[in-house]
Design brief:
The complex is a heterodimer of chains A (173) and B (105).
Chain A: H1 2-7, H2 10-59, E1 79-89, H3 92-104, H4 109-133, E2 137-146, E3 163-172
Antiparallel strand pairs in A: 1-3, 2-3
Helix pairs in contact in A: 2-4
Chain B: E1 11-27, H1 30-39, E2 44-45, H2 47-70, E3 75-87, E4 90-104
Antiparallel strand pairs in B: 1-4, 3-4
The chains are: A alpha+beta (173), B alpha+beta (105).
Chain lengths: 173, 105
């Protein structure tokens, strides 16, 4: 065995090593995603709920809405555009489940969760930004979704990648 | 002043000066892309991309406001955003609105 090791050139050993690393890394990462992905997900969701409750306690309800006229303010002294964004992506396991489900069609619950989290988070960030910048309320809130950072193959987008959510509105005080 | 409503509440539009636009094209960083790939394993937010896109969009918005200022406006109303992927890995962020002159009522 040691003779074989000594007679093999070093660059060949390095190439073997790289192949071994890659061969071991991807299955290990996939199994990690399967076993612990939900743990990361529930941690995120818990944090988000706590923040939502905190902001609701400060502003006494919701300080953002989609109407084009202010509700709570009579006299407006200044206005400005407020925007915030988030990029989210499903985990490897969720992608795998989604790919299987998309063969049969129907509701894809694993993607559902990711999208719901992204939208809730981006709206929450808008609320926090309104508080931070001192706007009394944000009117005319819009949420846009785009898939900007995925690879385009053969001119068509054939799989879900990183999603971006953008929320923006007009801050009023 | 910028707003995504047709009129700014409490202000009166005295003159419209046409469409103000601003755009920027950004490509992602290869190193960050690899790190984002690792983050993808468990899903969730990818902070590198969030910051990149926000930075780019702020720049597009800044260019739009510069365009409006060159037209002689003091506000931009009805601001919209558009995003398109130009090539693999590059994104164009585009902001546009109507440059106007406003007065407080």
């Amino acid at each position: 065995m040691s003779e074989l090791l000594n007679s093999t050139p070093i660059w060949l050993l390095i190439i073997y090593g790289i192949f071994f690393l890659f061969g071991a890394f991807f299955p290990a990462a996939f199994i990690y995603s399967m076993l612990f992905g939900w743990l990361h997900e529930s941690k995120r969701t818990k944090k988000l709920v706590a923040r939502e409750q905190r902001v609701a306690g400060i502003s006494g309800g919701d300080n953002i809405h989609t109407l084009s006229k202010p509700i709570n303010i009579e006299r407006v002294s200044s206005a400005g555009l407020v925007m915030t964004n988030i990029t989210v992506s499903p985990s490897w396991w969720q992608l795998f489940l989604g790919n299987i489900k998309s063969i049969f069609g129907g509701q894809i619950k694993s993607y559902d969760k990711v999208l719901a989290y992204g939208r809730a988070e981006v709206l929450q960030r808008l609320r926090e930004q309104a508080l931070g910048e001192g706007w009394t309320e944000i009117i005319n809130v819009r949420v846009e979704t785009s898939m900007v950072m995925n690879k385009v193959k053969g001119g068509q987008q054939n799989k879900i990648g990183t999603l971006e959510f953008l929320a923006f509105g007009t801050g009023i005080r | 002043m910028t707003s995504n409503t047709e009129t700014i509440p409490g202000f009166k539009i005295t003159k419209s000066l046409g469409v103000a636009t601003g755009s920027t094209v950004r490509a992602k960083h290869i190193g960050k892309d690899i790190l984002a790939g690792f983050k993808n394993i468990v899903g969730g937010e990818i902070k590198a991309y969030t910051e990149l896109l926000m930075e780019a969009r702020t720049e597009a918005l800044g260019r739009m406001m510069l365009d409006a200022a060159q037209r002689g406006g003091n506000a931009v109303v009805n601001v919209r955003f558009a995003t398109s992927s130009v090539a693999g890995g590059a994104a164009e962020l585009f902001a546009y609105g109507t440059a106007v002159i406003v007065e407080q009522e």
